[in-house]
């Protein structure tokens, strides 16, 4: 749809926005809104579908949706971003709502964008904090949301290692991407007793066989803008990091980084997909042949949407959970989902990815059948 706004210099600019609801049979459609120059209808459709399987695999009462506006937020002022968000919300508010479709932040959107969306929605429908998630704590956001995706990734490392008979204290872990997912996953996996030996960001990576102090690397990154140059560590490229000596690899940056060209050289025996779609189908085939275990994105990074479900539930009940309660509930849901998927993989002798899709599609199909749609 067209989203026209008056820019700061006075000219009228028409942006294109999308909201796709892929499936709502198990609950309100759920999914983020991204602001990026590459947003188009095909991308939004594909991401909306992925949300349907993600919410189904962790068995939370949501469907799948995604939205986006084709724009470059780095070239826009706060005032322009607010106008864009309010106008976009006013264009789609009739198809949103706590029981219809519940947006969340995604690439280049954040708690501030959700606040504008919540405010605009509430001015049309009355005070409705459950209309979106990822809000600031002061406006009904949930404690623990910031860390939730990384925390979920760390639970998956713990569970998969247990199944594989690997001792956490002996595991050497590499993490690609040191943003929200990568940094929290690294901190939490380290707190399980594992050694983080490699970390990278968009500018490059670092490796130290004796282990990296993750909190210090984070402080270094905040100060210098990159993990590069961390004292006492070797510099590696992002490509080298993926192939470096480790037991567990956590891709937590971009899609398609593990592909037919490098899969045979990946040395990790366990890959936990923090990012969405980091593994291409040809890499997946190689990993299967080599016996590398891959915990798939729709399960591994579902901690964020699971915590969004907690936020929505707290808002509907006008209540507020303590952080340790949030973390305990997250643990319960993620472990149950992992167990269901791992058991299915065992019974059907398939990879975890196939098992995860099989569990998710089955749940959605069963709900469709029961509802008679
Ligand atoms: P972010 O923007 O906070 O961090 C991204 C990180 O990746 C940064 O460290 C950045 O430097 C690095 N990066 C960017 N381009 C890179 C490149 N070319 N090579 C190597 N590193 C690069 O993003 P995030 O929220 O941590 O999300 C990371 C991934 O996880 C994305 O695929 C996202 O879709 C997925 N994901 C995020 C969440 C969440 O709750 N944030 C939930 C589910 C999935």
Structure description:
The structure is a single chain. The strands form 2 sheets. A 7-stranded mixed β-sheet has the order 9-8-7-6-10-11-12, with helices on both faces. Helix 4 (145-164) crosses helix 5 and helix 4 packs across helix 10 (303-317). It has 373 residues and is an alpha/beta fold. It has 2 domains: 2-139, Leucine Dehydrogenase, chain A, domain 1 (Rossmann fold, 3-Layer(aba) Sandwich); 142-373, Rossmann fold, CATH 3.40.50. The protein contains 12 helices and 12 strands. Strand 11 (270-272), helix 8 and strand 12 form a beta-alpha-beta unit. It has helices at residues 41-57, 78-92, 111-125, 145-164, 180-191, 214-224, 238-242, 281-290, 297-300, 303-317, 323-348, 352-371, and strands at 2-6, 12-23, 29-36, 64-70, 101-105, 172-176, 195-201, 204-207, 234-236, 248-251, 270-272, 293-295. The structure holds nicotinamide-adenine-dinucleotide. Nicotinamide-adenine-dinucleotide binds at residues 149, 176-182, 200-202, 238, 252-254, 274-276, 301, 304. Residues 149, 176-182, 200-202, 238, 252-254, 274-276, 301, 304 line the site of nicotinamide-adenine-dinucleotide (NAD).
């Amino acid at each position: 749809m067209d989203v026209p706004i008056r820019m700061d210099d006075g000219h009228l600019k028409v942006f294109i926005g999308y909201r796709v609801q892929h499936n709502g049979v198990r609950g309100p459609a759920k999914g983020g809104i991204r602001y990026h120059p590459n947003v188009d209808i095909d991308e939004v459709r594909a991401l909306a579908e992925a949300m349907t399987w993600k919410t189904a695999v962790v068995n939370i009462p949501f469907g799948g949706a995604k939205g986006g506006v084709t724009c470059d937020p780095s070239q826009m002022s706060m005032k322009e971003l607010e106008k864009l968000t309010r106008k976009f919300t006013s264009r789609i508010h009739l198809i949103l709502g706590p029981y219809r479709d519940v947006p969340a932040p995604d690439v280049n959107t954040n708690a501030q964008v959700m606040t504008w969306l919540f405010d605009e929605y509430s001015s049309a429908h009355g005070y409705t904090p459950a209309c979106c998630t990822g809000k600031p704590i002061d406006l009904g956001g949930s404690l623990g949301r910031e860390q939730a995706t990384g925390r979920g990734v760390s639970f998956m490392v713990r569970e998969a290692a247990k199944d594989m008979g690997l001792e956490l204290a002996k595991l050497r872990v590499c993490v690609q991407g040191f943003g929200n997912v990568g940094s929290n996953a690294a901190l939490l996996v380290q707190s399980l007793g594992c050694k983080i030996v490699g970390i990278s960001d968009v500018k490059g990576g670092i490796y130290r066989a004796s282990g990296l102090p993750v909190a210090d690397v984070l402080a270094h990154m905040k100060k210098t803008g990159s993990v590069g140059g961390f004292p006492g560590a070797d510099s590696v490229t992002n490509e080298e990091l993926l192939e470096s000596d480790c037991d567990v690899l956590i891709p937590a940056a971009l899609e398609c980084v593990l592909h037919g060209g490098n899969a045979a050289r990946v040395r990790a025996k366990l890959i936990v997909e923090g990012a969405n779609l980091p593994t291409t189908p040809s890499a997946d085939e190689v990993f299967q042949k080599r016996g590398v275990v891959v915990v798939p994105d729709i399960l591994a990074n579902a901690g964020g949407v699971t915590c969004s479900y907690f936020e929505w539930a707290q808002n509907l009940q006008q209540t507020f959970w303590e952080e340790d309660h949030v973390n305990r509930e997250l643990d319960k849901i993620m472990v149950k989902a992992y167990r269901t998927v791992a058991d299915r993989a065992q019974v059907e002798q398939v990879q975890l990815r196939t098992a995860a899709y099989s569990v998710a599609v089955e749940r959605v199909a069963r709900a469709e059948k029961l509802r008679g749609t």
